[in-house]
User: What shape does this take?
Amino acid sequence: MPAGNKKSRTFRKIFKRTPGGKNVIHYEKRKPKSPKCSVCGKQLIGIPRLSDKKLQKTAKSKKRPERPYGGRLCGSCLKVKLIKEVRS
Assistant: This one.
C-alpha cells in the first residue's frame, strides 16, 4: 500500500524495473500547466513546464523569451500590439 499522501492524484505513478527484475512504483509530482497568453489564451512557446522550485534554479534566459512582453503574450498577439503602438 502506498503512503497516505501518495494516494491522491497529486503524484503520478512511474513504473520502474529494478536491476533485480522487480517492478516498483515511484511517485513524482506532476508538472504544472503550461503558461497561456494573457490576450488570446494560447499556449506560450519557449517557457519550460517546471515547478517554482526548479524554475528558480534555471538561468534567467531559459525561463522566458528575451523580447518585449516575453512570457506574457504569444507571437501573434505581440505583433498586433506592436503595430497598434507604432501607429498611434
Observations:
- The first strand starts at residue 11 and ends at 17.
